[in-house]
Amino acid sequence: MRLSDIAKALNARIENAAPDTEITGVAGIEHAAPGQLTFVSNPKYNAAAKTTKASAVIVAENFPTINTGMLRSKNPYLAWAQALELFYHPPTYAPGIHPTAVVHPRAKLGKNAHLGPYVVIDEDAILGDNAVLLAHVVIYRGVTIGNNFFAHAHAVVREFCHLGDNVLLQNGVVVGSDGFGFAKNEETGRWHKIVQSGNVVVESDAELQANTCIDRASIGETRIGRGAKIDNLVHIGHSCTIGHDTLLCAQVGLAGTTDVGNHVILAGQVGVSGHVKIGDGAIAIAQSGIPHDVAPGVMVSGAPAIDHRLWLKCCAVYAKLPEIAKTVKKLSERD
Description:
Elements: H1 3-10, E1 13-15, E2 25-26, E3 36-39, H2 46-51, E4 56-60, E5 69-73, H3 76-87, E6 96-97, E7 102-103, E8 108-109, E9 114-115, E10 120-121, E11 126-127, E12 132-133, E13 138-139, E14 144-145, E15 150-151, E16 156-157, E17 162-163, E18 168-169, E19 174-177, E20 182-185, E21 190-193, E22 199-202, E23 207-208, E24 213-215, E25 221-224, E26 229-230, E27 235-236, E28 241-242, E29 247-248, E30 253-254, E31 259-260, E32 265-266, E33 271-272, E34 277-278, E35 283-284, E36 289-290, E37 299-301, E38 306-307, H4 308-318, H5 321-334
Parallel strand pairs: 2-3, 3-4, 4-5, 6-9, 7-10, 8-11, 9-12, 10-13, 11-14, 12-15, 13-16, 14-17, 15-18, 16-19, 17-22, 18-23, 19-24, 22-25, 23-26, 24-27, 25-28, 26-29, 27-30, 28-31, 29-32, 30-33, 31-34, 32-35, 33-36, 35-37
Antiparallel strand pairs: 1-5, 20-21, 37-38
């Protein structure tokens, strides 16, 4: 593929390279070879751009000039993502139903469905056009799913849940498992299970990655907003609401009735206690513990979470605590 064609597809500008340079593939900056395309978006790799053997590097508009060919882009990370799509095409799945698949007579499948081995679709489930369900996917009764659904092996959608268009479930996702609700019987000392009568709604363009679990609501719904991206091993408790285009990174845990706004980023292992509201555009740094509401647009970190800049100052002081303690002890001994 010519570099000029790639530049046009990425809306990028060629610099220091011949437009007809042939690009045969993509690779990381430290492993790229002649004929390959790579990228830099993290300043950590700026020095590697000077020594890479790649034929061209995708860089930001203000990146310093280097001897290697460059594709200047306003958003090099996005351009790189688009470049990958030019060279890698994932497997496609022809329409058809595997002989071992079980589809209830009252289930409805749209056009061009692909059902892999041992797929199960229960009574009154409705799937839109172009659905791909790989091996051992299970769709419970009464589920409704829009067009272009893709479920990798062992994904499960429980009873009466609703999924929009272009929803992608990675391996082992469970949508609609029972919420963790139990009431204590003081007379017997035992826990009485609260019926989880609600469901889960996953809006269009959402992606749930491997082994993520979304609990159904006890009453009402748990809702995942349009375009939300949820990483591996995330747990979302019953009756939570996740806003549009929000990112929940690996091992995030949300207790029940958490309200997360639009365009929020919760980094890895963030924990949020129940009945908390996180405002639009907020960011929580990895391993933050959030016991209270978070205002829109702020960045928090620590446990309990506080303003990120204040947390950095606290961390700097924390490392000096032994020295400070000695000083305090000496001063107290003088008295």
